[in-house]
Amino acid sequence: MALPVYDFRTDVRNILVTPEIRSRFLKFEVGAVAQRHSHDLGHEIFLILSGRCEFEIDGEKAELGPGQMCIALANQHHQVRVLGDEPMTMYLSVTPHIQPTHTMWSNDGWGDNTQKLPPRFVSNTSYDVPVDNTTPTADLIARHVAGADGVAAAVQANTQQQHDLAVAYQQAIASGDKEAAIQARHAMWAALSQVFQSVAAWGQVWNEFAARTVDETQ
Prior knowledge:
By secondary structure, the protein is of the alpha+beta class. The protein has three helices and eight strands.
């Protein structure tokens, strides 16, 4: 199987969508202004590929052109406006990608009286992901609860491991046994990575549940 290669001039869509990250090429036409919003969890990176635009992030503005990038951290209000007489294309990534991904605000997110609006869940079609119309909602809920149990079990097991391995690491350092310290650190990471994997798996089933129940909740 050939290694996939993506081109911003032809692949204007979501490229990779997982609970850990969503990445895509996005094109804005001349004069376009995106609605101001924020992300409760996600940091978002923007890299301009063609055209020019003005970014506003938490009230600060900057003009960007090809090869330049900026970052909106979690909870930072941000908006982009196309400048000039040609469309603008960018690469963006948001991490993590957990629904509801976008937080909208009253007064377009501007002013002292702005208020966070209710969560907005969207269909997977918004992220160019196939839609599952066959799995019963009850099964999705059961998977979500099982995911929560999986995270709890991973955290519980990992906590004792981290305590024990931290003691082993400190003892190895105190005795000058560098190799033992390295092995303890490696074991700490092996245990910790299982927690992150369980959280990602939980995020996947949550996103499936959230996307499927849009019509039921709105």
